[in-house]
Amino acid sequence: MAIAERWLRERFGSEIVDHRIWALCGDGCLMEGISSEATSLAGHLGLDRLTILYDDNGITIDGKTSLSFSEDVPKRFDAMGWHTQVIDGHDRAAVRKALEAAKAETSRPSIICARTVIAHGAPNLAGTNKAHGAPLGDAEVRATKERLGLDPDVTFAVPVDVVSYVRRGNPARAEARVAWEKRLAESPQRARFERFHANPNTSEVSWPTFETGSKIATRKAGEKVIQALSQRIENLIGGSADLAESNGSYMHGGGDVARGAWDKRNLHFGIREHAMASISNGLSLHGGVVPYCATFLTFHDYMRPAVRLAAIMHRPIVYVYTHDSVWLGEDGPTHQPIEHLMAMRAMPNLWVVRPADANETVAAWKLALARRDGPTALCLTRQNLPVIANTGPGLERGAYVLADEPEIHVVLIATGSEVALALQAKDVLGQEGIRARVVSMPCTALFDRQDAAYRSSVLPRGVPRVSIEAGTTFGWERWVDGGISIGIDRFGASAPGAVVADKLGLNVPNVVAKTRELLGAR
Ligand SMILES: Cc1ncc(C[n+]2csc(CCOP(=O)(O)OP(=O)(O)O)c2C)c(N)n1
Ligand SMILES: [Mg+2]
User: Cα 16 to chain center, whole Å?
Assistant: First the structure.
């Protein structure tokens, strides 16, 4: 959020972008690794309008933080380039003063380490982990009220001055809001500001098109899409976790966002995938920008908790995941996704799209940007793929018939790079008199949402099915309905991509043999 704030402030000025970002965090938040990823980047970028209030109570669920946490938090933040303060969090004057000091800081983010006591005022449970989650209990509530000078027999009471304070509202804040609205209304930048906060308008984007028969990796096709988008969507902002060139995620000519270079377009998240996905959530929640982020598909695992939050919060974020199978080759098993596609598909409200070729990649980007109620993951290849005729239209329905025959014997369902393989297998099967339909299924979640008539028009009942995907076969039972699945149920191997794929059975002879076997068995 603080990145969005700073980036927009650069464009609209601090008369219009005049807010700050406050974060409340506890011991648990600072123990989690992501806090280090995110605050390291915040310090590096000098996000001066970000303030963390750290509830430093020394307690978590299991007991004192000393069980597992003894770092010097202010020193840690100091080392990352933050402005740090340590205060007594129960001293309201000190809190106020610290907030003012944080606001006065104009080149660094701020952390206020506020020493507090959990369940402050409860005579027996204050300062203990027993107060973390469980109610204090009747006896302790009584004792606390007595100690605070409240009537212990009154179960629920709000002091009169609190009621009147809340009812009165805060005229200064209301006035500030009205004044801001006036500044915006009178600003020459108003229309642009409103455009930034509306849904991305793709009507003037010169979408690339690719000629049938040519060859191009879908990550390269995606790179061309990003260039076209960056020309027309001024507030498209994105970047990669140190793989910008490999991911094809860089906006050429957009420059690198840095401290002192907020007019630029490309974010460098560093090798911080979890923070990258969380920052994308923050960018999206803040508004005013259209965020995307990129890494290798296998590193989706590092992003997963934040992607899950994006899905829960219905954030329209685009994830560019390249090197989407064993076809990536020499980097080997650590980098070769196997279970990832299916694990991602298991997540509600995440659309996982694996385009068959360059033109389907364009359609996938269109779909992702039109989507406003959740994130979309684009799974793209490292290796070249042939550009296939007629791909793209139908992608929005999740799966569609790409090549057909009258009175088919079998349906080959494939995704991504395996669509071309399925088409080759179809030709060979045809020579043997086996008539195959090829279905491209770039997004299973969308296909599942189609009505029964459409689904059975693509996958007719009673016709045997074969799925082909360079990933785990786990889960494909759902779509092959008693048929077979060709995939990879082991970790990959380090060798040139084509060699690995061939050795693992992703080749025409294997698809043909398995299909023949399936049909013979019936
Ligand atoms: C990622 C994650 N791990 C574990 C938990 C379970 N959990 C909830 S609160 C908590 C302790 C948090 O301690 P702290 O932030 O110090 O809060 P305090 O007890 O001081 O209120 C834990 C472990 C969680 N919510 N999220
Ligand atoms: Mg705590």
Answer: 28
pLDDT tens sequence across 223-254? 999 999 999 999 999 999 999 999 999 999 99
Residue 386, pLDDT above cutoff 50? yes
- Packed helices 33-45 and 273-286: angle between N→C axes, nearest 10 degrees: 70
**Pocket flag, ligand 1, residue 115 (CB < 6 Å):** no
Q: Are 362 and 221 in contact (CB under 8 A)?
A: yes
Q: Are 104 and 110 in contact (CB under 8 A)?
A: no
Q: Which residue in the list 273, 360, 418, 469 is annotated as catalytic?
A: 273
Side-chain half-sphere of 493: how many Cα atoms within 13 Å? 13
Mutate to test the pocket of ligand 1, among 25, 27, 312 (most ligand atoms within 8 A of CB): 27
φ and ψ at residue 433, rounded to 5 degrees:
85, 10
Atom of ligand 1 nearest to the CA of 305: 1
Secondary structure of residue 268 in the 3-state scheme = strand
* Whole-structure pTM value: 0.97
Give CA–CA dist 48/355, Å, rounded: 41
Cβ distance 413 to 248 under 8 Å? no
Q: Does the beta carbon of 324 lie inside 6 Å of ligand 1?
A: no
Q: Is 118 in the pocket of ligand 1 (CB under 6 A)?
A: yes
Confirm whether 273 is a catalytic residue.
yes
